[in-house]
């Protein structure tokens, strides 16, 4: 597919066919997925109404990608959490949080590739990045934990998924607060 200057408009017809107006060719969802991977920006419009249906078409691409491989990107637990936010007070916050998280993830991935390439040179290992996946998994775990913490800040009535262990300093802080309350109570009694 030839790259065209300006915005690429894909028209979707009632027969479910997709037409790339930039290249004057019919395309498939797989072709659109390849365009996304190449970084080509496009919008999808309903040919009859002119409505922007990019979101639903991209969602359909994700659905097909998830269905055709056993290596799914969206674990069931994530999908359940995502569904739980529909209609919730957090629904407005989740899209921007996910967008920022994916941007940060992409930037970290680029940095990691550069660091591995500098350290080991250009090898099949650095191209595939199979060995450094543990580092990426750790970053994902940290990002997930940050996500949970952010959601709990916005929704104080959420049930926590894991109760953090009490640290010894917390017990000391509680004892100090109790002592301060006792002192305050003594002062109030004297009045």
Automatic annotation (TrEMBL):
GO biological process, one term: regulation of DNA-templated transcription
Ranges of residues in domain PHB accumulation regulatory: 74-113
InterPro entries the record matches: PHA_DNA-bd_N, PHA_reg_PhaR, PHB_accumulat
Domain PHA accumulation regulator DNA-binding N-terminal, chain residue ranges per copy: 9-68
Protein name as annotated: Polyhydroxyalkanoate synthesis repressor PhaR
Gene behind this protein: phaR
